[in-house]
Backbone:
């Protein structure tokens, strides 16, 4: 009898202690929205996060990944926007957080959501076919100018990151490209290998296989700093050996946000739970492997710094897209 | 014969007790996924993908993981045919063409035969494709690189033309049906400018009309409405319920060897290109109808009309894994998810995979042989079981089908709106049947409309508006010409008859 009371007392204390330590935690399955299709970069990242959380028991409740790719991701963002105060819903963003509302006029903005955590930034590299003579960004841009707007740039999606980079290159250098949108990064890389187009701005992970096979050549990376990965990827080169576009005289940089947002009207404790959760996720070896394989820029911000970063990026997207004529209703 | 040696090594990798058990688990799961409309191979594999991450970290685990996932894929390919034949509801896009003759067969009480023919031809198609992958992968991978936007468009054009030119329906009804399909396919996001179109300000229409929702409604709900009208009974109740039907069907199948070869070729081509299993099945059905001596009877319940699309779909579904492995370009939505799986496990699909990950690649190829044999065993032994479903009274099974259809439509985008759309499509399907408009061209246009449009507009961007780009080299020129010939075929035969007759 005494024993039972003691046990009940201990149980109550343990329960109290754990609620005190973790002010808030999910009480049901967390929906992890991906505003893009299955198999793409954001989807892969979400599924790695899901498996890491499950494998290391980082959370009592489980995570379920849901793809809502309609209307260039508008479907996913509108879902989260409409779920005010729901702490069991998170969304991973691509650049379509900025580009989709601007290009389509669908009414949402990152301010309709609560910024949680920047996970990483995705790199972009200027690629050409290895059989072409261009060895540097400068040579290629010169050739594009000479060709008088006949060079073809392939990219993923329309009025999204790849086309914005292309427009930024055009604005800075005066060279003109024919931009051709494809559905996925893998298609884009293969179109370049097959010489159906002249260049791409694929993410590293989308083109690395062809680079290693010697069919594609990287000219420069659109990051102000070189990538920090020094392990050899091909026989001679590492990601760190690719010059920045600035070094090569092409003054354009662009990084794509891979960040987490929640619906609006959630409490600071709820946001904090996810910030801590992702801190643990980023410390796992699985996550580090993913970062290295995709040559990601591992900047990871949260709180006000993150919100400020997002606001700056938004302003930049508005400016870039306005001058390129990509804003809905403007032309 | 390096390949044979590597393949033998692959069998050694794949043939462990654990891997064989995984194969059967995968196939059974896949069949269930294939049967449930809406869930689909891609979603099914995506849901199960996280399960494999732990698995992939053990030694040799990546091979086990891909065996499990690819067997789910084979299972889904097999399973898609089941509901097409029994209820006229295609579980997967590539089984739409199977309904054309499979369902009439079931109505005549020959469901067992239709199922056995479907499964066996699926197996034959897959087997041919695996052999192609085993021995020709380097050559074939290079061929896929030849395909730019103009080539892709010409392939889609070929599919449409093969289907129209081979159709028995009045041409204007076919055309009207197809144009409606194109209009529906255009709703949503414009693939080239990225702006929204035909959404009329409705957020529900952002995603456009998903093919699966349309098909579940047009075929499934439409069929139930018709059955209601005709007196609440399935016509297939007299289906034979023993395994003898399999043997009897096998005796009949060798007659269709030519159709099998043609369909396998169409399937492999479409899988490698990668156009996908759905266009392959439609094209193969259309071609078989034209060239078979019994072509006129297609659509009334011909075994050959089941053999053609199933062989091609499975050949394409299997060979679609080749561009995925060698180029990193998925030939189907399911292959796209598998590709994501490879990347997460730390494998980099691409030309070097064959060199650096020999065990994995050849283990996978060996598992394609074994997985398909496992699949065939599983589905064939279940033929009587599946056919027995038709003996359940309509008043019991119809509500079940309705619920499954509704869940299927909901699963596609997790949206209630799609369930209502399914009902609307159901009524549309019923009206089409009553007014004798063909449904197939509508479905074909919804499936391939946006892909054909993207390729066409990409090609136009590249050529700066020159239509001659579709004849700019031998490859694209010959495909386009073939397409136009097939389109004009009825006119040609008609003209020949007139000349001879006079």
Residues:
């Amino acid at each position: 009898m005494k024993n039972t009371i003691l046990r009940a007392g201990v149980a109550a204390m343990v329960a109290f202690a754990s609620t005190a330590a973790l002010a808030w935690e999910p009480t049901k399955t967390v929906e992890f929205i991906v505003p893009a299709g299955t198999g793409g970069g954001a989807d892969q990242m979400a599924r790695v996060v899901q498996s890491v959380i499950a494998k290391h028991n980082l959370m009592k409740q489980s995570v379920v990944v849901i793809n809502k790719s309609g209307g260039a991701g508008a479907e996913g963002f509108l879902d989260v926007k409409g779920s005010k105060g729901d702490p069991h819903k998170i969304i991973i963003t691509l650049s379509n957080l900025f580009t989709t509302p601007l290009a389509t006029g669908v009414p949402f903005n990152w301010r309709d959501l609560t910024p949680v955590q920047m996970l990483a930034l995705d790199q972009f590299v200027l690629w050409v076919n290895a059989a072409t003579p261009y060895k540097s960004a400068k040579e290629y841009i010169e050739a594009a100018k000479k060709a008088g707007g006949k060079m073809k740039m392939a990219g993923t999606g329309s009025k999204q990151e790849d086309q914005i980079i292309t427009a930024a290159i055009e604005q800075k250098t005066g060279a003109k490209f024919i931009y051709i949108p494809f559905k996925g990064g893998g298609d884009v890389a293969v179109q370049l290998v097959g010489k159906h187009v002249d260049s791409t701005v694929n993410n590293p992970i989308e083109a690395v296989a062809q680079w290693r096979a010697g069919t594609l050549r990287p000219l420069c990376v659109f990051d102000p700093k070189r990538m920090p990965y020094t392990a050899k990827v091909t026989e001679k080169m590492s990601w760190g050996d690719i010059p920045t576009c600035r070094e090569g005289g092409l003054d354009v940089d662009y990084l794509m946000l891979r960040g987490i947002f929640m619906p609006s009207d959630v409490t600071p404790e709820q946001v904090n739970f996810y910030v801590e959760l992702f801190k643990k996720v980023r410390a796992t070896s699985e996550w580090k492997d993913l970062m290295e394989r995709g040559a990601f820029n591992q900047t990871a911000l949260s709180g006000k710094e993150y919100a400020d970063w997002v606001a700056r990026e938004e302003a930049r997207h508005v400016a870039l897209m306005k001058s390129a004529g990509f804003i809905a209703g403007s032309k | 014969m390096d390949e044979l040696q590597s393949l033998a090594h692959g069998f050694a990798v794949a043939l462990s007790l654990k891997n064989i058990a995984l194969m059967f688990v995968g196939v059974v799961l896949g069949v269930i996924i294939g049967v449930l409309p809406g869930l689909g191979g891609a979603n099914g594999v995506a849901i199960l993908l996280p399960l494999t991450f732990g698995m992939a970290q053990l030694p040799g685990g990546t091979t086990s993981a891909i065996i499990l996932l690819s067997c789910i894929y084979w299972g889904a390919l097999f399973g898609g045919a089941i509901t097409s034949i029994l209820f006229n509801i295609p579980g997967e896009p590539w089984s739409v063409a199977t309904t054309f003759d499979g369902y009439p067969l079931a109505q005549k009480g020959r469901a067992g035969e239709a199922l056995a023919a479907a499964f066996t031809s699926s197996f034959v198609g897959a087997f041919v494709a695996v052999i192609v992958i085993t021995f020709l992968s380097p050559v074939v991978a290079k061929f896929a690189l030849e395909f730019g936007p103009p080539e892709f468009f010409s392939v889609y054009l070929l599919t449409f033309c093969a289907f129209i030119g081979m159709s028995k329906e009045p041409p204007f009804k076919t055309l009207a049906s197809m144009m409606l399909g194109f209009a529906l396919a255009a709703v949503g996001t414009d693939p080239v400018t990225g702006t929204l179109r035909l959404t009329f300000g409705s957020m529900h229409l952002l995603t456009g009309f998903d093919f699966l929702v349309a098909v579940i409604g047009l075929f499934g709900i439409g069929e139930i409405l018709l059955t209601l009208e005709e007196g609440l009974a399935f016509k297939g109740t007299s289906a034979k319920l023993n395994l003898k039907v399999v043997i009897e069907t096998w005796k009949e199948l060798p007659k269709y060897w030519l159709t099998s070869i043609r369909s396998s070729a169409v399937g492999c081509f479409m899988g490698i290109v990668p156009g996908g299993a759905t266009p392959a099945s439609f094209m193969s059905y259309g071609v078989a109808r034209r060239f078979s001596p019994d072509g006129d009877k297609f659509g009334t319940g011909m075994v050959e009309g089941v053999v053609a699309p199933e062989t091609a779909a499975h050949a394409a579904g299997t060979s679609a894994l080749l561009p995925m492995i060698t180029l990193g370009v998925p030939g189907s939505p399911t292959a796209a998810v598998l590709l994501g799986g490879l990347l997460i496990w730390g494998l980099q699909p691409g030309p070097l995979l064959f060199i650096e990950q020999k065990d994995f690649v050849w283990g996978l190829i060996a598992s394609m042989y074994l997985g398909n044999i496992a699949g065939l065993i599983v589905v064939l032994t279940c033929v009587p079981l599946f056919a027995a479903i038709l003996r359940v009274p309509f008043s019991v099974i119809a509500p079940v089908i309705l619920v499954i259809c509704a869940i299927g439509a909901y699963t596609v985008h997790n949206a209630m709106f799609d369930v209502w759309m399914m009902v609307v499509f159901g009524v549309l399907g019923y009206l089409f049947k009553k007014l004798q408009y063909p449904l197939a061209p509508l479905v074909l246009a919804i499936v391939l409309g946006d892909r054909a449009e993207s390729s066409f507009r990409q090609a136009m961007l590249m050529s700066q508006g020159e239509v001659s780009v579709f004849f700019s080299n031998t490859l694209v020129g010959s495909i386009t010409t073939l397409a136009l010939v097939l389109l004009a075929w009825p006119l040609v035969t008609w003209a020949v008859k007139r000349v001879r007759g006079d």
Observations:
- Strands of chain A lie at 30-34, 63-67, 89-93, 113-122, 125-129, 151-156, 177-182, 199-200, 216-221, 256-263.
- The longest helix of chain A spans residues 303-324.
- Chain A has two domains: 28-122+256-324, 125-241.
